[in-house]
């Protein structure tokens, strides 16, 4: 990973740039890093603020030979790799909120967006996008966002080096991706569950279709969905949703 790197100044979104390279046949591990994104995008169609030089805005290509329904596993793998590398780099207590938000004291510090391309039910490639709010100052955030988000610099009281952060992450990701290739999702699931801040706590999940599920997450299913125990004791599988955690 990162042996082929495309460094860009301003770009609409590194996701688009990496997607174009993937369509042209670029190999697995090809990485696009930008100084600034003008139309950075988050999950659920939300914008992702990506000010110039203040964070890690990057996307890389994966070409795993896994069945299409297993793709959510890669999101969880990326979250584990990011969490472990940022904990090591910063010494901060960082946890994962399902599926892949990294939090410090309940505030979001990074985002992961996996977009896949499939043909006839077969996975062609995945573009993994990683945004790390590294050195953003309070003035870089819209005022109402600081209640929910923080940068590593604001949390640790010192700035971090972008290249070192990228290298730490890619090393960790590569190691876990190899492990995943050899042993499957089992070891990743164990690591994810140990870093999760959302297991066994009551929560409210809102799916993209708008239905609401209340219960306590109890773990991950084989394909990577969240297993949620409802108040009536029934365990349901949740593929995609927005998770609200109780205060505190
Ligand atoms: C989220 O938490 O909603 C996911 C945010 C993902 C942001 C990254 S930054 C690099 C890549 N390019 C994008 O446009 N988005 C991802």
Automatic annotation (TrEMBL):
Keywords tagged on the record? ATP-binding, Biotin, DNA-binding, Ligase, Nucleotide-binding, Repressor, Transcription, Transcription regulation
One of the GO BP terms on file: protein lipoylation
Q: Which domain of life is it from?
A: Bacteria
Q: What is its EC number?
A: 6.3.4.15
GO CC terms, sorted: cytoplasm
- Keyword Heme attributed: no
Q: What is the catalytic activity of this protein?
A: biotin + L-lysyl-[protein] + ATP = N(6)-biotinyl-L-lysyl-[protein] + AMP + diphosphate + H(+)
Q: Name one GO molecular function term.
A: DNA binding
Q: Where does biotin bind?
A: 37, 41-43, 108
What positions does the domain BPL/LPL catalytic occupy? Answer: 1-181
TM ranges are none
Q: What enzyme category does the UniProt record give?
A: ligase
Similarity annotation: Belongs to the biotin--protein ligase family.
- The protein's role, per its UniProt record: Acts both as a biotin--[acetyl-CoA-carboxylase] ligase and a repressor.
The protein here is known as Bifunctional ligase/repressor BirA
- Protein source organism: Paenibacillus darwinianus
Residue window of the full protein shown: 79 to 326 of 329
């Amino acid at each position: 990973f990162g042996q082929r790197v495309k460094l860009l100044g301003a770009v609409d979104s590194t996701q688009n740039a990496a997607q174009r390279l993937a369509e042209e046949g670029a190999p697995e591990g090809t990485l696009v890093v930008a100084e600034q994104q003008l139309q950075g995008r988050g999950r659920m169609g939300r914008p992702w603020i990506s000010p110039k030089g203040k964070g890690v805005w990057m996307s890389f290509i994966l070409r795993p030979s896994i069945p299409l329904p297993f793709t959510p596993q890669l999101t969880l793998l990326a979250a584990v790799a990011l969490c472990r590398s940022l904990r090591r780099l910063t010494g901060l207590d960082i946890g994962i909120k399902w599926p892949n938000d990294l939090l410090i004291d309940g505030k979001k510090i990074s985002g992961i967006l996996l977009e896949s391309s499939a043909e006839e039910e077969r996975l062609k490639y995945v573009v993994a996008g990683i945004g790390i709010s590294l050195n953003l100052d309070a003035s870089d955030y819209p005022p109402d966002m600081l209640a929910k988000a923080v940068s590593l610099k604001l949390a640790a009281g010192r700035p971090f080096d972008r290249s070192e952060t990228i290298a730490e992450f890619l090393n960790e990701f590569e190691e876990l991706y190899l492990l995943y290739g050899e042993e499957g999702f089992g070891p990743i699931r164990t690591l994810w569950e140990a870093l999760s801040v959302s297991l066994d706590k009551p929560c409210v999940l809102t799916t993209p279709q708008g239905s609401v599920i209340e219960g306590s997450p109890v773990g991950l299913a084989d394909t990577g969905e969240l297993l949620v125990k409802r108040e009536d004791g029934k365990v349901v599988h949740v593929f995609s949703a927005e998770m609200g955690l109780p205060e505190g």
